[in-house]
Amino acid sequence: MHFSSIIRLTALGCLLFFTQIVYVNAKPSSPSANEVVASWPTYSAMPSTGSNLQKVRFHLQQAQYPGNGSLHFSMATQAFNGLPQRSAESSEYFYLKARIAQHEHKFEEAIADLNQAIKLQYDYPSAWLLKANLHLIQQQHDDALNACKQLIGNSALALATVCSLEVSSYQQDNLAERYRLLKRQFSADYFVVNEQSKDADISAQLWFEQLAADMALRLQQYEEAQGWLSSDNLTEKPLSYIVLWADIQIAQSNFSNVIDTLQPIVAASAFKDDALLIRLAIAQKNLGAHSNTKTDWVYLSKQRIEQRIARKDNFHAADITRFYLWIEPQPALALKWAQRNYQQAKMDEDLRLLQQARAQYEQAEGAGK
């Protein structure tokens, strides 16, 4: 069985590339384009003082790390619901509201919140970046490109350029050309890290590396894709980075490397992320090391999938599809969940999942006749 880029975490399974850089002002009520704070901070303790807006920001940031998503998104929502009424007058309030709506897959609601944030402060790069993502998820490419263009003049030109290259790479047959342009205009060390803006520079660099690696993977240029990402200190990287790294390894049939690298990360997490469980199970299944015990990744992923289905959890439809495609093949269930996933998100990744599920189902139906 060949595992290509279709087994990557979908855009809905993580905080999307374009939302990773958040611009905020020292004043919580008015985010500025001039100060960048990374959404990938180093692990830090919950601030003992500060506004609820700061707490929402903190939990949304921490939710991007492996094992943190469920708890910190819940705490972010709780803190947001406790905001005073006067907070609703700020652009950051509506931006954070959109981030929460995005996590809940309420994309139209999130776009409406972002429009309100932009109405209050037009010069708000993070709102435009998130807006571009939400349109991209829904295949609204013209709207996504327009959002990228709004970054020109009110933030670093590099952000606008990379944003536009990413969106346009999904249009027609633009991928190879956009990847070539990305490599020509930028490099792995383009975002130089300095002490005065260390967090922001690291965030921008990680964001760029993921974009470049993702494009290379979509082009099936696996060695180049692997070259963009580092396996060093993966425990300090966002979940989206780790999943992309794993998908590149699986695409090259490096199943032992996936097990050896991801196993300690997942084992150390209080909550085991669905995306990592699925990839460990895929690797284990291909190595023929399935033991059907309570410490077995195939066993654990099956338990998680059954829980998601019992709860009618459409948020994880893509990973449920992957389970029934490649771990415990059941063509009818794979197609059912692929269709549900495509109702929510329409990235190329989601379409490929649907096509793969439909092909497997039709093959099974033909064999049964």
Automatic annotation (TrEMBL):
InterPro entries: TPR-like_helical_dom_sf, TPR_rpt. This is Uncharacterized protein. It comes from Aliiglaciecola lipolytica E3.
